[in-house]
Amino acid sequence: MASEGKAVYQPKDAISASVRSTMIVGGAGLFLSAVQNSLTRQNVTGWGVVTRTGGTIAAFAAIGGGYEFARVAAANLREKDDAWNPTIGGFVGGSIVGLRYRSFPAVLGFGALLAIIQGTFDYTGGKMTGFARDGEVDEYERTEQVRRNKRRPIEETLQELGEGRGIYGPGYQERRAERLKKRYGIDIPQPA
To answer: Would you say the pTM of this structure is higher than 0.70?
Structure first.
């Protein structure tokens, strides 16, 4: 029996995940192949995407499918969902990149490089946007709390910047009316 605090690992379908990933990353490869085809100096037909630069499509599809299959299969075999699974998948994907160079050191090097990148990315949270925020806290309330926490007292702001430019301390209207009466002799009525 699983302990009360730990969630039981649910196996995932490695084949469907790898097919889906192959299609998505292969689509990105098709896009890059089309860009490569459009930037050639020779006048090639639309089929040049497949015939001339089609290796890009195949490479991307193989990398995406190999990565996803190895990641999900490792998770299923280990029955854990941790940072080691993307590391294993990254090694397989990087090794596929290294196969294009037909050298064993390139296979190991690219595999290790992508494994380190993927493992580190997943270990540190797996997001490019920073830390995950608490989903139960309203975003407006959180923003207001941050503003209240970082707000400086008006006396400190007035001391550093002085009055004007939209920053006015208490009693500003009275001081302004007195200054204008003294300087120009104009009597300014006080607001009620």
So the answer is: no
